[in-house]
Structure formats: structure tokens, C-alpha cells
Automatic annotation (TrEMBL):
SMART domains (alphabetical): TPR
Record-linked CDD domains: Beta4Glucosyltransferase
Highest taxon of source: Bacteria
Protein name: Glycosyl transferase family 2
SUPFAM superfamilies associated with the record: Nucleotide-diphospho-sugar transferases, TPR-like
Length: 656
């Protein structure tokens, strides 16, 4: 008969998570002990239904006290403890049973895979945690938060032996943003740790956890200060020392102090020369400082490193897709788009779900300008056959304003899934941008006032009729929108649309706040996409000019993006009269080059370099301009020589 295993848990308001957790240990543990610390949902009832023994604990801001109650109630030979937002990986069940048969081991560090980020897009971070140990009455947790037991076991049993069992895996979802926000973990943890530190100001491990919580609360410089103090009093052989160094680096980097981050990285590499995270964040820090060659070296080094030990808690992708993606970005900075595409494709091969790499690939292909070529290229390197893949592509195309492709990919998924109200609205939007007005209006007419996106649907309906010049329809829908209760800004944008239909030579200009200007910019983009620049110009004539001053750069970018070069150049000259901005000079240089004005282009590239000498794009564009200029001069010279030979060649009669 094997050893009995008790699962011990403390919970509060975990009805959404606890079923998954308890299902994961079915057939492995012999009893489930759940200590509830004050749930006001159905957590205790769910636990009882699933066979747990449930005990209630009056919460006292001390996690160890609650955990120790669960230990006191456990009758198994071994304790496995999990939180409700965790689960035991299915492939770990046999390994767990095998490890509890070991005779000379007192406890195990096992692997935990933390999911970090937003719902629907998370990254993983592995770590080692002490979660499996023998059940003895003298083994009890200590510490009000980030409670510990491994050191207690060693204090009680000097001969205790620990092992690492990486084949046993816990999956943890508690660092997903929605879970953190729901439980207000950041503020709760900080409050408890601060109380504990007041009692034990010299507790280094507690200070480490305090620094980590400060980092999670985005108090980066405070976090760095505390964590540096901890590092100065911690043995580098301590199991959490690599993570400690990384948190210091992250704190400085996130606080906008890349030089300080690099200083810590240089010191850290001396202790851990194969720690990929240090090289990855070193690359990011050099990139922040526009030290592109150094950044490249660091990212390439990260990619070349071997598999990381679990105690490094290395972030997923620092040896692969993340570093490859950054190398692609650097290649783009040098206008080397072929190399950038190679790196982005390698990034995507390492992680097919890493959308930033896919988005940058598509951006380089310019899907709005080259829809067929973009589709052809993507079909060669990606499997776009599944509805999910095509839906993702549709989203990317939509965000990059390639509405024709967005609509094509969206329509190819219809019939495979039931379309939500948001998806149908996006389809109507794309149909309008393809001038398929009737189809768009059929979709938009289906929305009722009960729908949360009804006002947006009505606005698109109004825009559709406005494009067709149907004044009475526009006025009628504007009235319906006003009856819903609009902000002053939105109402003023409606006035702009209505008054632009009038042919008055004089008119009163309309003021717009930030939201109104944002809406106007959206409308401008749609009009330029529809090749309706005059309508956009008419709208801007009716806006109080002062309202647009802070957004002039955005307006310029729109006109340039849609190929209205003369208008963009005109606005840029006005902008540069008061803003000496390297990027603006560079854009004007690009426009002059496209228009064939090489002298103007050269002059503005020079101004851009003066303003920002660390931007490689500026130099490379100037060099390419000179090459084009030289080729043009050579062609003109050959043409002149040819013309001269033709006119000056003596006739055969005259030469006799």
C-alpha cells in the first residue's frame, strides 16, 4: 500500500477556479483539506460537492495561520499544497505518486509554470517552488505572507534531504491580469508585508517579496532601491538570487533607467554567464539607448544560450521568439526589410501565437497598398486555412487599415462561427470602406437601442448616408443620436458633418476637445482611404484651428500614409516652423524624395540628422538618396551625350 497524500488549500471567493484545481488532482490525492478564509460566494459548497473536507478560518492577515490549520487537519503521509488558481498538470500524476515512494527525501521543489499577462494573451514563466513534503506535526508554516516551510523543516530536522522534481508541474493562473485585479492582490500583499516588516525589519526574504510587490504595483524606483539592499545581503548561491537580479534589472528598465539596468546586468553576468534573461533585458536597455550594435550582440547571445535552469525562472521566449522579434525591429531601424522579415518569421516559427511578429511582417508587406501581393506572401509561409487563423488575420488587416483584406478574410469565416454584434459592425465598417453601402446598411439596420454598440452602429449608418450625400437621412439619424444623449464633443462632430453639407461661404468654426479630435481623425482616415481628401479638407476648415495644434503631427501622418504627399508637405512646413523635430524633417525628406525633389530631400535629411544623430534610418535614407541621385545624373549625362552625337555627327557626304 502506497503513501497517502493530502491536498491542503486555503481559499477565498474561488468559485471560478476551484473546480479546475480539484479536478486536476482526482485519482492522485487521498484527501482534500480546504480552509475557507471568508468566502461570500459558493466556494465552500463547490469544494464539498467535490469531496473536500471544508474548515472555516477567521481571517487575520496571516497566511501561515490559515495554512497551518489545513496541516493540522491532514491525515496523509505527504502534504501537497496548491492554491485554487493552480492545477496539477495531467502528465505529472504518475511522477507525483512515484516521488512519494522515496524513503530518504523529506520534501521536493517542483516546477511551477506561471501564466502572466492578459486573458487571451499570456506568457509563461517557470520557477521552482517547495510544495510537496512529509506530514509531520513539527513542520508548520511561518510568515504572514509568502509563507515558508522549507527552512522550518531544516530547523526541525538537520538531516532532512530535499530533491528537485521538475517532472512534477503546477500550472498557475494567478498572475493573469484579471485575477490580480479581481483579488486586488497588489494592495493586499503590500499592506500585509508592510505590517510584517515593521515587526521584522531585518528579514531579507520578506524584503525581497516586498520589492517584488512594489514592482508589480509599478513603483519601480522604490522596488529597485529595496531589491538592491536585499542583493547586497544575499548569498549568490541562494535559490532566488537569479530572480532577484532580474527584478532589479526590470525595475530600473521600467523606471526609464537603462544605464542602471545595464550596470546590474554586467554584474549579474559574472555570477550567471548563461542567464538568458539578463542578455535579453540587456538588449532592450541598449536598444533604449539607441546602441543598436550592442543590442544586437545581446539578443544574439540570448538566442545562443542553452536551456535555462528552473531556478532562473526564465521568461518564455527570451532564448527564442522575443529576442528574434527584437532583432527584426533592429533590422527595420536600418531599413533592412529582408533581414527583418527573416527574423520575424523565425520568431513566428518559434511561437506561432506571437502576434507582434506577425503584425510586423504584415506591416512590411503594406497590405493596404499591395493586397494581392500581401496575401500571396502570407499564404506561402502561413497556414491560413482554419477559421480562427483567418479571423486573426482579419483583425490585423483591420488594425492596419487594409479594409479590403480585412473584409475578405472576415467574409471567408462567415458560416463557420456565429458572428457577434462587434464582428458584424466591423464587417459593416469594411463594407462602407469598399463603397458597398447597401450591404453595410442592411447590417446596421439590425441593431436596436438595447445593444451596447447601438450608438456606434447609428454613427456608421449616418456616415454611410453622409458619403452618399443624403442630407435628410443624415439629419434624421443625427436627431436619433442626440436623443440618446451625446457628449458635447460628439455632438460637435455631428455638427461638422451636417454643416459640411451646406455650401455657405462663411461659417462659424466649431471647437473640439480631445475626444472630438480623435473622432475627427478617425473620419479623416476613412475619407482618405475612400479617396475623398476634399471632404476631409472641408471638415478641417470648420474646426477652430487652436483645437488641432497638438494633433497636427497625427493629421500629417494620415495624409502621408494615404499618399497625399503635397498636402502632407504643406502641413509639415507649417509644423516645422514651430517644431524642430527630427522625425518631421525626416518625413519631409521622404516626401521630397518621392516627389523627385532630391535637393529638398537631402536638406531635410541633414536637418533630421542634426536633430537626432542616433537614428540610423536618417543616414541610410540619405545614402540611398545619393545613390538614386547619382544614377539619375548618370542617366541624364548619357542621354545628353547621345543627343549631342546625334545632332553633331557629320554627314557621310561632308566627311568625304
Amino acid at each position: 500500500m502506497g503513501n497517502r497524500i493530502s491536498l491542503c488549500m486555503i481559499v477565498k471567493n474561488e468559485a471560478d477556479n476551484i473546480r479546475r484545481c480539484l479536478a486536476s488532482v482526482k485519482g492522485v490525492v487521498d484527501e482534500i483539506i480546504v480552509v475557507d478564509t471568508g468566502s461570500n460566494d459558493t466556494t465552500p459548497q463547490v469544494a464539498l460537492e467535490l469531496g473536500a473536507k471544508v474548515y472555516h478560518f477567521e481571517w487575520n492577515d496571516n497566511f501561515s495561520d490559515a495554512r497551518n490549520l489545513s496541516l493540522a487537519k491532514a491525515t496523509g503521509d505527504w502534504i501537497l499544497f496548491l492554491d485554487a488558481d493552480e492545477e496539477l498538470a495531467q502528465e505529472s500524476k504518475d511522477a507525483l505518486l512515484k516521488r512519494t515512494d522515496e524513503q530518504n527525501v523529506e520534501g521536493y521543489f517542483i516546477r511551477i509554470i506561471n501564466h502572466i499577462g492578459k486573458d487571451g494573451w499570456t506568457e509563461t514563466c517557470p520557477d521552482l517552488v517547495f510544495r510537496l513534503f512529509r506530514n509531520r506535526p513539527e513542520y508548520r508554516f511561518h510568515g504572514a505572507i509568502h509563507e515558508q516551510i522549507a527552512d522550518v523543516i531544516l530547523e526541525r530536522n538537520k538531516q532532512a534531504v530535499y530533491c528537485i522534481a521538475e517532472e512534477i508541474i503546477i500550472v498557475h493562473y494567478g498572475y493573469v491580469d484579471s485575477q490580480i485585479d479581481k483579488k486586488d492582490k497588489k494592495n493586499r500583499n503590500l499592506s500585509i508585508i508592510q505590517k510584517e516588516l515593521a515587526k521584522k525589519p531585518g528579514d531579507n526574504l520578506l524584503k525581497y517579496h516586498y520589492g517584488v510587490e512594489l514592482f508589480r504595483a509599478e513603483r519601480y524606483l522604490e522596488a529597485a532601491e529595496i531589491l538592491v539592499q536585499v542583493a547586497n545581503h544575499t548569498d549568490p548561491n541562494t535559490i532566488y538570487f537569479p530572480k532577484l537580479l532580474r527584478y532589479i534589472v526590470l525595475s530600473y528598465y521600467s523606471a526609464g533607467e537603462p544605464n542602471k539596468a545595464l550596470e546590474v546586468i554586467r554584474q549579474g553576468i559574472q555570477f550567471f554567464p548563461n542567464y538568458a534573461d539578463l542578455y535579453y533585458y540587456g538588449g532592450l536597455s541598449h536598444l533604449e539607448l539607441k546602441q543598436y550594435m550592442k543590442a544586437t550582440e545581446f539578443f544574439l547571445q540570448a538566442v545562443a544560450l542553452p536551456e535555462q535552469p528552473s531556478q532562473y525562472a526564465s521568461f518564455a521566449g527570451v532564448r527564442g521568439f522575443r529576442s528574434l522579434y527584437q532583432l527584426g525591429r533592429i533590422a527595420e531601424s536600418f531599413l533592412n526589410y529582408e533581414e527583418a522579415l527573416r527574423y520575424y518569421l523565425a520568431s513566428l516559427r518559434d511561437n506561432p501565437n506571437f502576434l507582434p511578429a506577425l503584425e510586423n511582417i504584415i506591416q512590411i508587406l503594406e497590405p493596404r497598398k499591395n493586397p494581392e501581393y500581401t496575401k500571396e506572401c502570407l499564404e506561402k509561409v502561413l497556414d491560413l486555412s482554419s477559421p480562427q487563423a483567418r479571423f486573426i488575420m482579419s483583425n490585423i488587416f483591420f488594425n492596419q487599415k487594409a479594409y479590403r483584406l480585412a473584409l475578405e478574410f472576415l467574409e471567408s469565416t462567415s458560416g463557420t462561427t456565429s458572428a457577434s454584434a462587434e464582428i458584424l459592425l466591423r464587417k459593416a465598417f469594411c463594407l462602407i470602406q469598399q463603397r458597398r453601402f447597401l450591404e453595410a446598411l442592411i447590417i446596421l439596420s439590425e441593431y436596436t437601442p438595447a445593444s451596447p454598440i447601438y450608438p456606434l452602429a447609428k454613427f456608421n449608418e449616418l456616415f454611410c448616408f453622409w458619403l452618399q450625400g443624403k442630407k435628410r437621412k443624415v439629419q434624421m439619424i443625427a436627431g436619433e443620436l442626440r436623443a440618446l444623449g451625446l457628449t458635447e464633443d460628439t455632438d460637435n462632430v455631428l455638427k461638422l458633418l451636417l454643416r459640411s453639407q451646406e455650401k455657405r461661404k462663411t461659417f462659424r468654426k466649431i471647437p473640439l476637445g480631445q475626444d472630438g479630435v480623435n473622432l475627427l481623425l478617425d473620419i479623416t482616415g476613412r475619407l482618405l482611404d475612400l479617396n475623398e481628401p476634399e471632404r476631409a479638407n472641408e471638415l478641417y476648415k470648420r474646426v477652430v484651428p487652436e483645437c488641432l495644434v497638438d494633433r497636427k503631427w497625427d493629421i500629417i501622418r494620415l495624409y502621408h500614409e494615404y499618399g497625399y504627399l503635397e498636402k502632407a508637405a504643406e502641413l509639415l512646413q507649417e509644423y516645422l516652423a514651430v517644431n524642430h523635430n527630427g522625425e518631421a524633417y525626416f518625413l519631409l525628406g521622404e516626401i521630397y524624395r518621392e516627389l523627385g525633389n532630391f535637393v529638398g530631400a537631402d536638406q531635410n535629411y541633414r536637418y533630421a540628422i542634426e536633430q537626432d544623430p542616433d537614428q540610423p534610418r536618417y543616414y541610410i535614407s540619405q545614402i540611398r538618396l545619393y545613390e538614386s541621385w547619382r544614377e539619375k545624373i548618370a542617366e541624364e549625362s548619357v542621354a545628353r551625350e547621345h543627343d549631342g552625337e546625334f545632332f553633331n555627327k557629320p554627314s557621310e557626304e561632308g566627311s568625304q
